[in-house]
Write a structure and sequence with these properties.
Largest sheet: 6 strands, mixed
Number of strands: 10
Number of helices: 10
Strand order of the largest sheet: 6-7-8-3-9-10
Distance between the termini: 44 Å
Order of helices and strands: EEEHEEHEHHHHEHEHEEHH
Length: 253
């Protein structure tokens, strides 16, 4: 049974069909990339998996759970975390405090006890130690106590990854993680994605436009156009598919 199973998902915005019967599956431990021209529906699919959008029809199952039957706030608790195209870190907070934001689903104090500060200090100490350990594993430990403001863009991207990892996910959704990076930083990012997949025993679903990185790190590639899947398979197969070449380069005269 695949870890993530997407079947016949349809999403409409008025008269616009954003996803048109999209189906694919991702096995545990894979890096699966969703690629396609702008407007193909890649981020829409991400928003369905993370429950920001409600599909018109279809099913999404993850690790035995029916995601579409769950409330959005329950997604992180079953093991799904994501990053977004634009950074959403808190500049005034320290690096480790930013990462701790991602660990809120692992807390046990609850609202009532937090109001009277019962057990808050002990839990905060535990989460800080866990998040510092994540930063150490990502070679960011030396930055743990400095403010996030002013750090290089590539470093901020890695901190955002660390924050997502603080939720202890099984599935990590990366929405255009190379956006805004230099060519050298993109190459480094590809290595980072493979490293965190292996270190944290993750499955990764990736939306990305940098084809060289996609083809270098992906186990499976799903190609979309106008909300539909037009090709699927390992990078060596997809890069030579006539439909993929046509979608990206245009049909010959």
């Amino acid at each position: 049974m695949p870890l993530l199973d997407v079947q016949d998902i349809e999403v409409r915005f008025g008269g616009i069909v954003a996803l048109d019967g999209l189906s694919f599956a991702v096995e545990a431990g894979e890096i699966c990339a969703l690629i396609g021209p702008n407007g193909a529906g890649k981020t829409t699919l991400f928003n369905c998996v993370s429950r920001l959008y409600e599909p018109w029809s279809g099913s999404i199952r993850f690790d035995g759970h029916d995601l579409l039957a769950m409330a959005p706030h329950g997604i992180a608790r079953v093991g799904v975390a994501r990053t977004f195209q634009n950074l959403a870190l808190f500049p005034a907070l320290s690096v480790v405090e930013n990462v701790m934001v991602g660990a809120h689903t692992n807390g046990s104090v609850g609202f009532a006890r937090a109001m009277v500060r019962l057990g808050v200090g002990r839990e905060e100490k535990r989460l800080r130690a866990e998040c510092t350990a994540i930063l150490e594993r990502m070679s960011l430990g030396h930055l743990a106590n400095r403010p996030a403001v002013g750090l290089p863009f590539g470093t901020l991207k890695r901190i955002e990854f660390a924050r997502a990892l603080a939720a202890t996910p099984k599935l990590l959704l990366l929405d255009e993680p190379a956006n805004g990076l230099t060519h050298g930083e993109v190459d480094e990012l590809g290595d980072t994605i493979k490293e965190i997949r292996d270190q944290f025993d993750l499955t990764v679903l990736l939306v990305e436009h940098h084809m060289s990185m996609v083809m270098a790190i992906s186990d499976q590639v799903v190609v979309m156009e106008f909300g539909r899947k037009i090709a699927e398979g390992p990078p060596s197969q997809v890069r030579n598919d006539p439909k993929v070449i046509e979608a990206y380069l245009g049909a010959p005269e």
